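Entry type: protein chain
Record version: 2
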Amino acid sequence: MSDTGYFGQLAKKWGRSAPRQLYRMLKLHRTSFTTILQNMFTILEETDGRFTFPTVAGIAKMKPDLVREIPKEGHEVASHGTNHVRYTILSAQARRKDLLSSLQVFKEIGIEIAGFRAPYDRYTDDMPALL
């Protein structure tokens, strides 16, 4: 298992308690993305708010119709990487590959990207130049 993937990072951070942490995260995310997104749209419409949704390309690829609803509702989509990994542990080449891969996924499903938010808000010094 690669330590640059999600599960590898989870194992590196949590060690032997990683399975328990994974279970907690799965339990927390029992509410579907569709329900969460629709609830957010409702509240944003009630308050006439606009939002930028940082979106993981891997999720967008699995649920393109759901992600296409974001701009249809008047909001923006920002790249949140391809697989939600910590950019600070990736090499510069791997960061570039992850970002370009995410942009390709969004392009393929017809989503215009308005920005970028690094997973876990962990940026590296080369991110401005990369973006």
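Comment: The longest helix spans residues 92-108.
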